[in-house]
Amino acid sequence: MTRVLVLHSVGLLRSALMALLKAEESFDVFASGWCTARRQAECLRPDVCVVDLDCPGAATLLERGQDEPGAEARTRLVVLATAGRPGALRKAFEARALGYVDKDGSPRRLVRAIRQAAEGERFVDESLAFCFLEASRVPLTAREMSVLARAAEGESIAEIARGLHLSNGTVRNYMASATRKVGARNRIDAIRISQRAGWV
Fold it and tell me: CA–CA separation, 64 vs 91, rounded Å?
């Protein structure tokens, strides 16, 4: 049996994904919201974790995946994505995700991605291929994108620092670096440019 944990911030969609995957006799499926995600993952030790990149808590989970080098050996990550958001795909790639499934695609694609990820094989939906290539051209690091994304939501330097477990000075450095890389005049301009490009 492949143990699968579905993480989603919306209860109805979480239940729908769980019901879809439970139809597969070889899957043992569990689901969780963001508040209990870490505890669930530690208790269940799933083979595969399915995450919707459009969920607000996805960025935090992906950042954690980058900080834990052995994570990919324990749980394989499959992400649900939409075309046109290369920044989100870049974060998922840096968090060592193995499966990339288009949310507009067939449910069978998700099942196939989970099976392949459980075997340690990569799966990328054809419809995401171009966006995946664009992700390699994103000039920002995953951490710079996270800082900009939080700033776009109105968080102060201190709030971003607390949320990412960084010092205020480090957050300012990331902000300055991101602003320079995208050719922006200031922080607001950097956010605008990055959002328009689909990086944050």
Answer: 11
